[in-house]
């Protein structure tokens, strides 16, 4: 197989749809009652929702930016991350939450910000570390060294592997080595999470077309249902779990091709374009959900009504906060731009 470099593709609506599904499931199963009441469903969802998110993130991550632009991108991920992770850690020391901290110190706070993040903010921590490794590994040399590299003879015969493919393979080897060092050597990354980001990057650089890597066919949905009969497959760090991720993504791409009403489709895509505010602010509303939980469970004891109300509350509340930040100009200081992508 010949591996070729591909130029960045225009925005795919399907990816926004995937992000919408994954972020909605994240909010739903961050409700403690739902996770505790439906542990098998939680185990299944945790097998694919954040791995899928990381895979899409690896595919979309832009490593063609100059250093200055890349630094700004990192800054506007790091700043809201630090603010929200710090707030979440302080809150965990004050409220009787599951991740309660008994004795909050400056050292504990620094540890959670830079080494062991709490809550859903670990995703941003992982995104930044993986993104830095990706960028460094794929950053093209400049000046005389770049010209010399182009003129250097291939290490292998052209018929076996082109020089460009050798370079690409070398870059991915370096990228994987960086991730391995951060996961096994430093303990800063989950190996499984880093692997899914790496797979997304491989799909982008080696395949180029996300739809080719994940064919949206009806049979993937059928195979997914059969594969999920066995709960032993619910492990994102296993081959069986990776198959679940592949089948879920392919099945969702097939679902997107069906006749979804345009108004509903627009809502899904809007949510998918604005997952960062949901990731940042939804924990506020999932914590508040505990206060009205008993009332809604008396109305409908299975918890489904409670889940739907809470997810809608979290999405609307998160977007409401972001809208206020946009209206007051705070978004420029927090996100570096408007918080909501229209």
TrEMBL record:
Keyword Cell membrane: no
Keywords attached to this entry: Acyltransferase, Membrane, Transferase, Transmembrane, Transmembrane helix
Residues that span the membrane, as ranges: 20-38, 44-62, 74-95, 121-138, 168-190, 237-256, 268-292, 304-325
Pfam families named among the record's database cross-references: Acyl_transf_3 (PF01757)
Domain Acyltransferase stretches: 14-322
GO MF terms held by the record: acyltransferase activity, transferring groups other than amino-acyl groups
PANTHER family linked: MEMBRANE-BOUND ACYLTRANSFERASE YKRP-RELATED (PTHR37312)
Protein name: Acyltransferase
Protein's organism: Prevotella fusca JCM 17724
């Amino acid at each position: 197989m010949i591996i070729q470099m591909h130029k960045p593709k225009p925005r795919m609506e399907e990816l926004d749809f995937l992000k919408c599904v994954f972020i909605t499931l994240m909010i739903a199963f961050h409700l403690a009652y739902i996770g505790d009441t439906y542990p098998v469903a939680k185990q299944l969802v945790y097998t694919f929702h954040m791995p899928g998110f990381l895979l899409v993130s690896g595919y979309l991550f832009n490593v063609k930016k100059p250093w200055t632009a890349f630094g700004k991108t990192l800054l506007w991920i790091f700043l809201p991350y630090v603010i929200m992770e710090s707030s979440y850690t302080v809150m965990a020391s004050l409220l009787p939450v599951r991740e309660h901290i008994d004795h909050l110190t400056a050292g504990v706070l620094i540890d959670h910000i830079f080494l062991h993040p709490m809550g859903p903010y670990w995703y941003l921590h992982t995104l930044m570390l993986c993104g830095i490794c990706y960028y460094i590994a794929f950053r093209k040399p400049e000046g005389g060294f770049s010209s010399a590299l182009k003129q250097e003879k291939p290490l292998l015969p052209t018929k076996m592997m082109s020089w460009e493919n050798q370079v690409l393979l070398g870059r991915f080897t370096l990228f994987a080595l960086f991730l391995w060092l951060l996961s096994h050597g430093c303990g800063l990354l989950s190996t499984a999470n880093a692997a899914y980001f790496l797979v997304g990057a491989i799909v982008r650089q080696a395949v180029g077309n996300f739809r080719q890597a994940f064919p949206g066919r009806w049979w993937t949905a059928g195979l997914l249902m059969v594969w999920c009969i066995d709960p032993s497959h619910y492990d994102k760090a296993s081959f069986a779990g990776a198959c679940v991720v592949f089948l879920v993504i392919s099945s969702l791409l097939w679902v997107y091709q069906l006749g979804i009403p345009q108004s509903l489709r627009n809502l899904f895509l809007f949510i998918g374009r604005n997952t960062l505010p949901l990731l940042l602010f939804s924990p506020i509303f999932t914590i508040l959900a505990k206060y009205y939980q008993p009332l809604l469970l008396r109305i409908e004891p299975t918890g489904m009504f409670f889940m739907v109300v809470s997810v809608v509350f979290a999405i609307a509340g998160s977007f409401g906060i972001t809208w206020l930040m946009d209206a007051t100009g705070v978004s420029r200081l927090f996100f570096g731009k408007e918080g909501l992508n229209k």
